[in-house]
Amino acid sequence: MGYSKEELLNERVFYHFHQICQIPHPSGGEKALSDFILKWALDLGLEARQDPVNNVFIRKPASPGYEAAPAVMLQAHLDMVCEKNEGSSHDFSKDPITWVIDGDNLSTGGQTTLGADDGIGVAFAMAVLEDKTLSHPELEILFTVAEESDFTGAVGFDVSWMKADYLINLDHACDREILSGSCGGMDAEIRLPIEHRKLPQDWKTYTVMITGLKGGHSGEDIHRGHGNANSLLGRFMAEAGKRFTYGISAVKGGTYRLAIPREARADLSLAASDYGKLVQLAEELQAVFREELQQTSSSLKITVEEIPLAGTQVSPDKIVTLLLLAPDGICQMNEVLTGLVDTSDNLGELHMDGREFRMVFEIRSAQDSLKYYIYEKIQRLSSLVGAKCSTEVEYASWHFRANSPLRETAVEVYKKKYGSEPTVLTVHAGLEVGCFFEVKPSLDAISLGPDCWNFHSPSEMVSIPSVRKAYGFLCSILEELK
């Protein structure tokens, strides 16, 4: 079935999502969207306030006949991951997100992230708030900031504002599932001091680019074998060192620790007479990497381009050691839930300036002990080459509970509404629910949402029919909680 933009804008969820897409809202830059929603809620006559970090909290009274029902909080995050393809001129600080409708799916046509994570969740809650025909208990709506960076919003929220013991998080990406747990996580950053040296005579400088990988969410896609451009760049430089002498003048890989890197590059300086070896290596490893990733990254490319001569170079030895030995990908599978990743990390970013080489990781685990174990491995690796390792961001896991009246209600509603049993599971991604559980252990929580794919990449898309289904499911749950 084909859809038009005009048709979608006649539906309140899509209308609100489109408004969200017009307002830039990267992590750390949510103020404009936060202000917009606060004013919108106050104009509706709802009780609403904004806290010092720009979270927005809104309260809507219970419908007639639901006054005695337990209060329910709906929660979604305002910020989005800003990823774009190489060559895109999109400016996330000012440009609106462009919609492309392809069959049943809504995307940006592969140019940038869409922001369905979690703009669709925000739109769900806004549609519920303005609907005067929907029956529901007293509602508390929390829109948080910085979920995609350091969980500042969830950690900084004053839970004394909450009455609710039921929490429905709107940040899941499959309409056939009810999420009941998530992993915790932390970042890690290696900083290696570098020493510049002059280039030998008759050397030239070339940019080596690895592009065409699929990328994706560093938690939910870590098991899909999409390949990591930063790790592949390390392998390229290690092999280059076996064939000729070179120095490094620049490195850049990935853009965000929460996204699996799709692209990476290094500026290498070497003798002009070794140029042919460099090109041959690029051709050979392009074929090798395509073979290894033939199902997900068959369009992978390694290109070599001469650039203006670098002023200085850095020895590749320590940098290559870090790249080759850095843990990346799945570290341990869950021993109880078959097919679920328990612990992983993602080498998300590479940077190099005049003073240091930096590597940024995202570590995820359902168990704190394994989370710290991976961090210690990274820490010890850094000390072997004289680098420093630090962490600034840590967030709690949301542990599965065997007894959950809210989940039981949601399961029964799903079976009655759709004639099948939903899947109840936990996910290898960090959700803000864990932060709320730390300070309010009495919470009973679930997470739900429509079918979305390729979060944290320009291939992000959301299913239009699934948005309708998931929103209907949410409304039916609220009506049942009498």
TrEMBL record:
Ubl conjugation as UniProt keyword: no
Keywords: Cobalt, Hydrolase, Metal-binding, Metalloprotease, Protease, Zinc
Catalyzed reactions: Hydrolysis of dipeptides, preferentially hydrophobic dipeptides including prolyl amino acids
Known cofactor(s): Zn(2+); Co(2+)
Domain Peptidase M20 dimerisation residues, every copy: 211-295
Keyword Heme: no
InterPro entries: Peptidase_M20, Peptidase_M20_dimer, Peptidase_M20C
An annotated Gene Ontology molecular function: metallodipeptidase activity
NCBIfam families noted in UniProt: aa-his-dipept
One Pfam family it belongs to: M20_dimer
Documented EC number(s): 3.4.13.18
GO cellular component: cytosol
Source organism of this protein record: Clostridium symbiosum (strain WAL-14163)
Similarity comment: family membership: Belongs to the peptidase M20C family.
Protein name as annotated: Cytosol non-specific dipeptidase
Gene Ontology terms: biological process: proteolysis
